[in-house]
Amino acid sequence: MATVELRFSALPEHVRTARLVAAAVARRAGVDEAVLDEVRLAVGEACTRAVGLHMSNGVGTPVRVALIEDEKKFSIEVGDDAPGNSGALVPGARDEIPEPAGEDDEDESEMGLAVISGLVDDVEITTDDKGGTIRMSWPTTPAPALP
């Protein structure tokens, strides 16, 4: 099992980098090309949510992303240190995604979770008083054996 770990400052401009790295590792792990856009979008939503929670709650620790290659699946875990994940997102925290006018920030956070759930069949969201983790996974196709 190979794992790539990213840690980045809770700034919206770093979400794009996390998306690009996740897509590259997913491709290498054997995730179907047709699903890579879903991987990028889901990682973007999860990281954007984590960045917003850190900004809104004044959390100075980095956002954590683990990209895990397994024999039959590729998993991504996005972790934040926002206590209870109950804080509203800071307006403008979403990376390259326009905010709907008049929407409540907490509703936006829930919308991000709904988008992730719509993109990923295997998703688990956990929270506690130390932060939260969004775990997502996709099936992989084993690389053909070399002769």
The first-to-last residue Cα distance is: 23 Å
Element pattern in H and E? EHHEEHEE
Helical coverage, percent range: 25-40%
Shape: globular
Over all CA atoms, what is the radius of gyration?
15 Å
Strand order of the largest sheet: 1-2-3-5-4
Average pLDDT reading: 81
Number of helices: 3
Report on this structure:
The chain has 147 residues and is of the alpha+beta class. Residues 86-103 have low confidence and may be disordered. Strands 1-2-3-5-4 form a five-stranded antiparallel sheet, covered by helices on one side. The protein is built from three helices and five strands, in the order βααββαββ. The protein has helices at 15-29, 36-57, 105-119, and strands at 2-8, 63-69, 73-80, 122-128, 131-139.
Compile the SSE list and pairings.
Elements: E1 2-8, H1 15-29, H2 36-57, E2 63-69, E3 73-80, H3 105-119, E4 122-128, E5 131-139
Antiparallel strand pairs: 1-2, 2-3, 3-5, 4-5
Put the structure in a nutshell.
The protein is an alpha+beta fold and 147 residues long. It is 35% helix and 26% strand.
Defining traits:
single chain, 3 helices, alpha+beta, 26% strand, globular, five-stranded antiparallel sheet, 147 residues, 5 strands
